[in-house]
Design brief:
Two copies of one chain form a homodimer.
Chain A lengths: L14 H15 L6 E2 L11 H14 L15 H13 L9 E4 L2 H7 L9 E6 L3 H8 L4 E6 L18 E5 L11 H13 L3 E5 L25 E6 H4 L8 E4 L5 E2 L2 E2 H12 L5 H10 L2 H28 L3 E3 L5 E5 L6 H12 L1 E2 L1 E2 L10 E5 L4 H19 L2
Parallel strand pairs in A: 1-13, 3-4, 3-5, 5-6, 6-7
Antiparallel strand pairs in A: 2-8, 7-8, 9-10, 11-12, 12-15, 14-15
């Protein structure tokens, strides 16, 4: 028996466990101090009323023999795929129903899609990066190249004609930086992928936070994307489904590599290794795309956006450089006074009782930066933003 | 870009689509004839009342900020893993909580577990077989050997000292044959695996149908299994969760290969490529293991068992050889009069209006056999069993 030796090459991740330990130690030493978490990547508002009603109604269907549902289609029920098709049409994207696959999470699909590709491919990921893009490829033994995201390129790296990659990850609006590509920038990536026989894996998990008209919600708004891109999206952030689990992946019929339709390969993968999403959850997901659902989930998005705006205002007042926040719940700030990101973490916890995420945890190019999010409680975020402003100002003037 | 060329080696499966087309053609030609499906592998009774109540209660929790749940533990909530731990204890199996992983389906976990193993391993599957065991390994390019399941070995192949395999699939009670291994037989497999550095992938999806005391519910009832086996189980058949989706996989801490704990590898796989099962579904699953849940789901199992018993009685009366039905919802009958399995399918549909599944669809050794199931409606199953008896008797006397 030979195990998969590539697992031995995975780096252990201590980012969130280290944060947890530091916060616990601080709370134990200062039980009287309020600690506010602005580092959280999870939603905090309850599910929207139309979603709750759909869950109850679908549960009642499962209680009666006449309306009970057993195995559903592995790729998702048509009622949900039709709703997703209509949602794409709102952004001017025409999709066939069979191009849409319902899943239990973008993380699952982003990982599992790699089974369609040989281990002998070169992968290009940005740095800093969502660690899952790296680890899933290390597990398969692929070569990984990094595209540097820096303040100079506004944390939006562009194609480099000298770099040849086969699988390219783009997350826009980005986790962790909050930066979002414009239409023209994405067109450059699509052209690069088509010219180089590469596949773009486009993570659109934060698309619902986009406010600027020149930032596409879908890679398929770009001409040529259907011959080079796969898109992953999720209701986790769109509708607070992080604990409810529903996502969707689009593999266009026009996307072929090695003479083979990737859509047919993904359909075979999913029908062989997957049995689809819970019926009641699919009914809940469909409720998100009704008028009432769109209204209610939009209010939650507005709440998180207002939190992000409070943090942005504090950083503006303190004169701290940052990106994100406009089209994203994430803000990516430069650590004041040239601090290293873990030093700033310690300083902010000690002096302000505010917890964020050190940029170094997302890659070498994240050093000197810090991630904050708008997913918290509004009142707490208001207090934290004020303390952040004071701490940053104090550090700037040292 | 190189795609995964192994997908080109997958055989297309036309089993259920061919059945569907034949039934549709028959119904179109004979709209007045009743057609009863005894081939169905899906449950038909609604979810049990305690499960429904748990779904409603958990949905209400998701509607309030104070009780809302976002991301849960990737490997499942402790409340469910504790319930599963207690369930194993009922069969005399002591497990640590961290040996239990909650998933969305045995099909997902049976497929995904293969990522822990190198492509350069030899796989042993029975023939006939649940096609997923074969296809998931073809996708990874592994060598596949077949252990013949025949009437001579009661469709329960035993280890062969001349055959050297690294990954061994055992499904007991079996799909498609309904045959179930005894304690002594499983001990022989466990010994073989430990002696040969192999891993047993034990599919226990039908364990709740076991009636005979000498048939283990879990491979971990067998001494030595914790150093060689991984077990997959599901609530699909136990509690009618085929459309609700919840399963569990046990990877013992004592199971090491190549000096590495497979438990640690699987944990890393799941935390990297998975975000766990919906909170409300996990609450529903936990309700199955309460006294009320066990009582209610037990009534559904009894209903399906009674259906299987009606089919068994019909086959006994007609003098047809079969296995299964005792510890399984499946019955695996020899086609009467030496018929090929598709010929018997056509005959049974034409003369009795009964639909089953041709054994040839499960592998070469399935030719000449036919799968029937107890998952249908009791009244319809009663009528179908009568017609089956008549058809078989007519064929026997030809």
């Amino acid at each position: 028996m030979k195990i998969n030796q590539n697992y031995g090459n995975l780096a252990e991740s201590y980012l969130f466990s280290t944060i947890g330990k530091k916060v616990n130690a601080f709370t134990a030493a200062h039980p009287e101090r309020e600690v506010i978490r602005l580092g959280i990547g999870d939603v905090t508002l309850p599910l929207a009323r139309p979603v709750i009603e759909a869950l109850h109604a679908a549960t009642d269907e499962m209680a009666e023999k006449a309306t009970f549902r057993g195995y559903g289609p592995d790729q998702g029920y048509d009622f949900l795929r039709t709703a997703l098709q209509a949602e794409y049409a709102r952004h001017g994207v025409a999709l066939e129903l069979d191009e849409i696959f319902v899943g239990d999470g973008a993380k699952s699909d982003v990982g599992n899609i790699l089974e369609l590709f040989d281990a002998d491919n070169t992968v290009l990921v940005p740095d800093p990066v969502y660690p899952v893009y790296v680890d899933t490829n290390v597990m398969a033994g692929r070569r990984i190249l990094y595209a540097s995201a820096t303040r100079e390129n506004d944390f939006l790296p562009m194609p480099d004609a000298c770099v040849r990659a086969d699988i390219i990850y783009i997350c826009s609006p980005n986790n962790p930086t909050g930066a979002a590509y414009t239409r023209a920038q994405l067109k450059a990536w699509v052209d690069y992928a088509n010219e180089n026989d590469a596949v773009l894996l486009f993570d659109a998990a934060y698309e619902r936070f986009i406010t600027e008209p020149d930032v596409p919600h879908s890679i398929f708004e770009i001409d040529g994307a259907k011959t080079c891109a796969i898109e992953f999206c999720s209701l986790s952030k769109t509708a607070g489904f992080t604990g409810t689990r529903c996502s969707y992946t689009v593999v266009p019929m026009a996307l072929k590599r090695g003479g083979t339709k990737l859509n047919a390969m993904w359909l075979r993968r999913q029908t062989t290794k997957y049995n689809g999403v819970s019926y009641i959850v699919q009914r809940a997901a469909a409720a998100v795309f009704t008028d009432a659902g769109r209204q209610a989930t939009g209010e939650a998005i507005a709440y998180y956006r207002a939190n992000a705006a409070m943090i942005a205002a504090a950083l503006n007042e303190a004169g701290v450089w940052y990106c994100g926040g406009k089209n994203s719940p994430y803000l990516w700030m430069e650590c004041p006074g040239g601090m290293a990101s873990w030093d700033f973490f310690d300083y902010l916890l000690e002096h302000a009782g505010v917890v964020g995420t050190p940029g170094a945890g997302f890659g070498a190019r994240g050093e000197g930066y810090f991630r904050l999010t708008g997913f918290g409680d509004a009142q707490k975020t208001k207090r934290a933003a004020q303390k952040l402003r004071e701490a940053a100002a104090a550090l700037q003037s040292r």
